[in-house]
Inverse folding.
């Protein structure tokens, strides 16, 4: 080997060792800076992608068959009617709930407030399932904060920039949630599947008892005992139950359609109870009587 | 020599361009992974020390940009680790890859690609293009196997193969354009893309 090549190889190995030994705080700082440097390109790329997709959709819409449109319209009218009825029922329940709260002097139970954020883009990388949102550390977000929507739990925050953050989706194996099956004593650790890159990939609730007789369709919610996610967040529904060597495993269908997320809510955990009394209500996933519209925007 | 710094700048700019390249939802968000593909192409055109420098820059920036990070548990012993794992399983970083592992993978694949430099020197790009596709596939597979090794249970879901093949095909589609760019750059900067791994010299002639 030439002397020049040998010298280059020694320098290379030394640098690689230095990179591996780098402190986590320093790498996190560099990550934030790189994300910050690339943020104009990320925003520009996202808006360009959205413009192109909107134009393509417009073109497709203009080519639609009038008979199909009429059928869709009829179906939507039926749906609107049924939703109107549901809305009336909901209003009645809400009023009744408020009356009952007044009676028992109920205080807001939500221990957290939320920060609404817009999804900038879905990151197409190698084996990771992540999103980029338009809020960051200057908007009071922190790493490892739960991210939710009206439908349910979405994931947790990762890398932070001043006005941009990465969200590790629930479908990624790195995002683990302590979860339980509603109406049972079954509790386990839920995570995504490896390379679960499908539009709506299933989740796995592990470490359940082998004789757990779970009914498909039962709701799976967070326990609040895992260190990150608060209790009561809807994760999904049991699809089926599998018996493994030692423990049982439930295949869970996520409540959220990860391919169609436009807005998310990042939960800002409150330190003291007093602070939580000023917080707006939790989303439907956490507290059935409130809506995400009440969140901080 | 203008060729090397310009190649390095082009490499850095691929990270900005990557932000404009969307994923294909039906192919499990497979996309053209431009910085690695540019590196694999450049590894054929530059000598060994420059290839190592490029692998260092590409690998480091790729990990910094794409590796998801989360808080890790602070523990100082097996007992404390077990205690904190049981208490806060959501905070446990399971099989997370560390910043810098891509540098090693890129360097290894770069050395592999240096083997086709004689063909590239002669202006033949067929084999280098195929090699870029193969190395893209190998890189993704190595990354997947590393994750599998760290997390346990060998799983090969169908999504894995779809993504691997689509990413490799997209890399092979982009490779000729990148080679053309590198040839043009070499022409403008009067850089001779030559193979000097096996050079015979005769003293006195």
């Amino acid at each position: 080997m030439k002397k020049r090549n040998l010298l280059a190889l020694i320098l290379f190995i030394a640098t690689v060792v230095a990179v591996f030994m780098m402190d986590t705080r320093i790498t996190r700082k560099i990550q934030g800076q790189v994300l910050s440097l690339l943020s104009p390109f990320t925003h520009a790329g996202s808006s360009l992608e959205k413009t192109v997709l909107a134009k393509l959709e417009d073109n497709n819409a203009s080519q639609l068959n009038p008979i199909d449109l009429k059928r869709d319209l009829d179906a939507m009218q039926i749906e609107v009617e049924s939703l109107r009825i549901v809305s009336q029922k909901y209003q009645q329940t809400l009023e009744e709930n408020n009356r009952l709260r007044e009676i028992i002097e109920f205080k807001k139970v939500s221990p957290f407030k939320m920060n609404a954020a817009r999804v900038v883009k879905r990151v197409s990388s190698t084996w990771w399932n992540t999103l980029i949102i338009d809020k960051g550390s200057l908007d009071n977000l922190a790493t490892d904060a739960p991210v939710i929507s009206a439908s349910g739990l979405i994931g947790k925050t990762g890398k932070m920039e001043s006005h941009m953050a990465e969200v590790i989706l629930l479908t990624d194996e790195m995002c683990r949630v302590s979860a339980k099956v509603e109406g049972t004593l079954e509790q386990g650790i839920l995570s995504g599947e490896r390379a679960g890159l499908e539009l709506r990939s299933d989740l796995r609730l592990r470490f359940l008892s082998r004789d757990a007789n779970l009914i498909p369709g039962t709701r799976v919610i967070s326990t609040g005992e895992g260190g990150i996610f608060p209790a009561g967040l809807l994760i999904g529904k049991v699809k089926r139950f599998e018996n493994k060597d030692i423990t049982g495993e439930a295949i869970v269908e996520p409540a959220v359609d990860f391919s169609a997320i436009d807005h998310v809510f990042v939960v800002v955990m409150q330190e003291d109870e007093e602070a939580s009394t000023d917080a707006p209500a939790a989303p439907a996933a956490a507290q059935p009587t409130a809506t995400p519209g009440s969140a901080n925007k | 020599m203008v060729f090397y710094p310009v190649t390095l700048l082009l490499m850095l700019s691929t990270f900005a361009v990557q932000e404009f390249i969307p994923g294909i939802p039906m192919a499990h968000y497979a996309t053209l992974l431009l910085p690695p593909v540019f590196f694999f192409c450049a590894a054929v055109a530059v000598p060994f020390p420059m290839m190592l420098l490029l692998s260092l820059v590409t690998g480091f920036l790729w990990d910094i940009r794409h590796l998801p990070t989360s808080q890790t548990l602070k523990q100082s012993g097996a007992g404390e680790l077990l205690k904190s794992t049981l208490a806060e399983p959501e905070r446990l970083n399971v099989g997370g890859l560390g910043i810098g592992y891509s540098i090693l993978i890129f360097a290894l694949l770069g050395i592999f690609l240096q083997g086709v430099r004689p063909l590239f020197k002669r202006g033949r790009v067929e084999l280098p293009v195929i090699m870029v596709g193969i190395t893209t596939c190998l890189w993704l597979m190595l990354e997947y196997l590393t994750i599998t090794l760290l997390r346990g249970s060998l799983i090969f879901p169908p999504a894995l193969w779809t993504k691997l093949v689509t990413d490799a095909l997209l890399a092979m589609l982009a490779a000729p354009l990148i080679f053309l760019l590198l040839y043009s750059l070499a022409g403008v900067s009067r850089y001779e893309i030559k193979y000097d791994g096996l050079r015979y010299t005769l003293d006195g002639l």
Chain A has a mean pLDDT of 80. Residues 259 and 288 of chain A are 24 Å apart (CA to CA).
